[in-house]
Amino acid sequence: MTYASLLVTTVIFDDSKSTMFSQKTLLNCRGRLLDLSTPKISGIVNVTPDSFYAGSRVMNEKEILHLAEKMLNDGASVLDVGGMSTRPGSEEISEDEELKRVIPSIEIIHKKFPEAIISVDTFRSMIAQEAVNAGAGMVNDISAGRLDENFLSTVAKMKVPYVLMHMKGTPRIMQQNPSYENVVKEVFDFLKEKILQLNSLGIHDIIVDPGFGFGKTVEHNFELLRHLHVLKIFELPILAGLSRKSMLCKTLRVNPDKALNGTTALHAVALMKGAKLLRVHDVKEAAEVITLLDQLKLT
Fold it and tell me: Which one of 90, 211, 264, 286 has the largest count of C-beta atoms within 10 Å of its C-beta?
């Protein structure tokens, strides 16, 4: 029996904490409800000059509001705003620079579209706090709280949903020969321990993300996608961040700007494997995948 199939038959219980994982699909995002009992879309709003996909970059108020409006009209339930590129090999920007990019962007989106659910993509507690003050209702953290000792306690105090992602290393070094004995087991075990830690802090509105492309080879990424259903054991919504990533580009030998077709194909696979939130650059196409799979009754 493979590790992945063994997990499917295992009830996860931590006797030392008397904690069991419980189903959580209706998330309260500062008064705006996100129902992940059915698949939804998180649109990527990159207020950065150096994100890996040039087509996703927006750097002024007009561009930001145009993209936000288009994504919402195309079917996005969440707008995920990030001010620092975390592509492989990227360098950190200063906290002040990230703040200057992110907070005004969230403020103008929240003012123009007050009913929209905004997520902030950051691993810094100060940015997360200021973003929620500005109108964000969710925090998306690539680091699982490991790059800022105050991050998880800050999220607990803010009482907003938290996207928990697996990453091996840091963005600058994560793709320098990442290795695992069993990538599915190691990612699963990492998320399991982090969920228990989050629960102990009072954080229960959690979305789990295996971290496609964050410290994984192409083979690791496809192995995780093949066994994505294993994460359903946590009974928490699963986020799939596959959009135009290198696992597609390297396999298809295309640049990110030519990777929409491959992205759409893998979105269908992720949904059939249990993903409930797709983090995407192209909202309309992702929404069409959800509609078609709903018609087939496969999600």
Answer: 286
Cβ count near 3 (within 10 Å): 13
Contacts made by residues 87-96, CB under 8 angstroms, sequence distance 24+: 87/50, 87/51, 87/52, 87/171, 88/171, 88/174, 88/175, 88/213, 88/246, 89/171, 89/172, 89/175, 90/50, 90/171, 90/172, 91/172, 92/171, 92/172, 95/124, 95/126, 95/127
Give the 3-state DSSP-derived string for 134-196, with helices as H, strands as E and coil as C: HCCCEEEECCCCCCCCCHHHHHHHHCCCEEEECCCCCCCCCCCCCCCCCHHHHHHHHHHHHHH
**DSSP secondary structure letter of residue 215:** S
Does residue 98 contact residue 127 with C-beta atoms inside 8 Å? yes
pLDDT, tens only, 271-293:
999 999 999 999 999 999 999 99
Residues belonging to the chain: 299
Instruction: For 185-233, write each residue's pLDDT tens digit.
Output: 999 999 999 999 999 999 999 999 999 999 999 999 999 999 999 999 9
Q: Catalytic residues, which ones?
A: 245, 279
Which helix (H) or strand (E) is 32 found in, with range?
strand 32-35
219, β-bridge pairs: none
* Span between the terminal Cα atoms of the chain, in Å: 26
Tell me the average pLDDT across 139-152.
96
Each domain of the chain, given as residue ranges in start order, spans 39-296
* Architecture of the structural domain at 39-296: Alpha-Beta Barrel (3.20)
Q: Which residues contact 41 (CB under 8 A, 6 or more apart)?
A: 75, 76, 77, 78, 277, 278, 280, 283, 286, 287, 290
Q: Are 51 and 85 in contact (CB under 8 A)?
A: yes
Q: How many CB atoms lie within 10 A of CB 206?
A: 21
